[in-house]
Amino acid sequence: MSSLNNCIKFALDIKDKNIVFKSFFYKMVQMKKHKIYEAELIQPACPCCGSLALLHNGHLITNIHYLTANASHPVIIRLAKQRVKCRACNRWSMAQSELVNKYCSISNASKLKVLSALTEDSSMTSIARENNVSVNTVQRVLGSCSHRFLDSYEYLPAHLAFDEFKGVDRQLHFICLDGDSHQVVQILRTRYKKT
């Protein structure tokens, strides 16, 4: 292992042994200065049978958006994933990493940072701007964990507070709160009786 590879892995806090960093440079992308790290993701064994007899068949280059401390210089990891064919079971596979999900170009570390920012009192637009992702990505991250919060209508608090507020697309939304603890009971998309 080269010292450059170890230094970059330490700086980016990447622990995957199959990722080997080769170089880094600055590049202007869409009128913004980006830090680009070039790396290769190695497939050590067949994921199906575990055989080491692999036939290498090129790379798939993926630009992964990684988290950064300075939002004015976004970080992109240009990851070359190895494509291999196993000689034992004749199956094709591509190298995978815990750094990023399959078919995704936003790192899992960036998604966790967005998720932690969603717990604070800030808008989705500001969260997207701070993490160099789109607002749709912030909404997808929120939607991916929303199944954990199931509404229970078996119990209603003794005191309810109702109000309306401006939300998405400057429409008025309906909100229902517990009058004592100020916990949100329900938010509806519109303020009309039908909803």
Written description of the protein model:
The protein is 21% helix and 35% strand. By secondary structure, the chain is α+β, with helices and mostly antiparallel strands. It folds into three domains: 3-105, no CATH class; 106-149; 151-188, no CATH class. Helix 2 (108-118) runs antiparallel to helix 3 (124-131) and helix 3 crosses helix 4 (135-145).
Task: Provide keyphrases for this structure.
195 residues, alpha+beta, three-stranded antiparallel sheet, 35% strand, elongated
Find the structural class using helix and strand composition.
Answer: alpha+beta
Please provide the count of β strands.
Answer: 8
Number of domains: 3
Tell me what portion of residues adopts beta-strand conformation: 25-35%
Brief sketch in words of this structure:
With 195 residues, the protein is α+β, with helices and mostly antiparallel strands.
Q: What is this structure's SSE topology?
A:
Blueprint: H1 3-12, E1 19-29, E2 32-41, E3 54-66, E4 75-86, E5 92-94, H2 108-118, H3 124-131, H4 135-145, E6 160-166, E7 172-178, E8 184-188
Parallel strand pairs: 2-4
Antiparallel strand pairs: 1-2, 3-4, 4-5, 6-7, 7-8
Helix pairs in contact: 2-3, 3-4
